[in-house]
Design goal:
The protein has helices at residues 12-27, 30-42, 58-69, 86-94, 107-118, 131-139, 155-166, 181-204, 220-231, 243-251, 259-262, 281-284, 305-311, 352-372, 385-399; strands at 49-53, 73-76, 98-99, 124-127, 149-152, 174-176, 212-216, 235-239, 255-256, 268-271, 291-295, 312-319, 322-327, 332-336, 380-382. The N and C termini lie far apart (56 Å). The longest helix is centred in the middle third of the chain and has 24 residues, at 181-204. Helix 8 (181-204) crosses helix 9 (220-231). The protein has two domains: 7-182 and 350-399, Adenosylhomocysteinase-like (Rossmann fold, 3-Layer(aba) Sandwich); 187-336, NAD(P)-binding Rossmann-like Domain (Rossmann fold, 3-Layer(aba) Sandwich), CATH 3.40.50.720. It is built from 15 helices and 15 strands. The protein is α/β, with parallel strands linked by helices. This is Adenosylhomocysteinase. Belongs to the adenosylhomocysteinase family.
Length: 409
């Protein structure tokens, strides 16, 4: 199939740079590498067209190469604006993968890319945010019958798809990786959360020790962010809508209060909800001068910056990804990264080694979906535990570690 390449990435210099990035990431992803070898031998995805809508970087490019090795025809449309690496796009396009992805800042062009990808007629989807499924329903419902199912990695994707399922509008089965056991340890605690703090501290020069850090959301990601905030010497306040999670936060030693109350005392407010408008207009007038806001969830819009801009008398970019809004009373509110989610901006790429297990699970989940879609209902499903267990075994093998077998009793 002829690769579709945006003019800005049809460049041999970009291609070579992208291949170097992909090669480096591949060397750090032994689990995905073993699955790639298995896929190349067994061709479990032969004859299938798969559309991937997820941030395009070196690690996710390795996922694409794995699926391609398994016989799939790939169409990659990338993720949110500024989450796509043109060098990676050029390298994948040169290897025969259909690319409908490039760096830009226009939401309209992002939607146009989704529609273009959909119109290629996929059998399986990788839909990080859940937007791809919604776009198919609204723009090309005639193609729904040919789609067997898909996979999403994120909490935001889970929330969107769950709403569709609740309304009986989910058109095919979708596997969600967010609650997979391995995600808590290797995705959030080891990869997502360290990159949150690494990005923020390097970009903002914010000193955490002794400050009041408000964390909205005490799911797995919020919990891991809390652990690191406390380790850095912060006083942590948690805002939650789920009473069970709020009790858990309290029993973990955090102060728990409503977000409007927490907005009065917070020096740093971090959202980890995956929900739009977690922080909005009703909170801004309550905040301290110099407060810093960060969003970490997959949904761009956890912090409603449109409402912040509406009440600001001036706006400026302090440095890349750090914005300053001045209110009429002279107070300043700083927002870190108004477009892509906070983690993965200053650090360039997700750590390939720590992303290895997550993307390996995604590859196996796509294989599972293809083999079982006709026996699954149109519902949101967890990744089978056996797949997570298989990934863990491959990881242990790559580490040269051995474990005992449970005794039969």
């Amino acid at each position: 199939m002829q690769a579709i390449v945006h003019a800005s990435i049809n460049d041999s210099g970009l291609t070579q740079a992208g291949r170097l990035k992909i090669s480096r990431a591949s060397s750090q992803m032994p689990v995905l590498g073993r699955i790639r070898e298995r896929f190349a031998l067994g061709q479990p995805l032969k004859g299938l067209k798969i559309v991937l809508a997820l941030p395009l970087e070196a690690a996710t490019a390795c996922l694409g190469k794995t699926l391609q090795a398994g016989g799939a025809e790939l169409v990659i449309t990338g993720g949110s604006p500024h989450s796509n690496d043109d060098e990676i796009s050029a390298a994948l396009a040169a290897d025969g993968i259909t690319m409908i992805a490039q760096t830009d800042s226009e939401p309209e062009s992002a939607k146009a890319r989704l529609i273009s990808a959909i119109e290629t007629g996929p059998h399986l989807l990788v839909d990080d945010s859940g937007e791809l499924v919604g776009t198919i329903q609204s723009e090309r419902p005639d193609l729904l019958a040919g789609i067997r199912g898909g996979v999403t990695r994120t909490r935001g994707g889970l929330q969107r798809l769950t709403r569709l399922e609740k309304d009986q509008r989910l058109p095919f089965p979708m596997i969600v990786l967010d609650d997979a056991p391995g995600m808590e340890t290797f995705d959030r605690r080891c990869e997502t959360v360290p990159s949150v703090w690494d990005d923020m501290l390097r970009t903002t020069d914010f000193a955490v020790a002794g400050k009041t850090v408000v964390i909205a959301g005490y799911g797995r990601c919020g919990k891991a962010i809390t652990m690191q905030a406390r380790a850095l010497g912060a006083h942590v306040v948690v805002a939650e809508t789920d009473p069970l999670k709020a009790v858990e936060a309290f029993m973990d030693g955090c102060q728990v209060m409503r977000l409007q109350e927490a907005a009065l005392i917070g020096d740093l407010l971090i959202t980890a909800t995956g929900a739009l408008d977690t922080i909005g207009g009703k909170h801004y007038f309550l905040m301290k001068d110099g407060v810093l806001l960060c969003q970490t969830g997959p949904a761009n819009g956890e912090i409603n910056t449109n409402e912040l801009a509406d009440i600001a008398v001036s706006y400026g970019i302090v440095r890349e990804n750090l914005e300053r809004y001045e209110l009429i009373d002279g107070r300043s509110i700083y927002f870190y990264d108004a477009r892509p989610p906070v983690h993965g901006t200053s650090a360039d790429d997700e750590c390939a080694e720590l992303t290895d297990m997550r993307l390996a699970l995604l590859a196996l989940s796509l294989q599972y979906m293809n083999e079982h879609y006709d026996r699954l209902g149109n519902e949101v499903l967890k990744a089978p535990y056996t797949l997570d267990e298989e990934i863990a075994v491959l990881k242990l093998q790559s580490l040269g570690a051995n474990i005992d077998e449970a005794a039969d009793r």
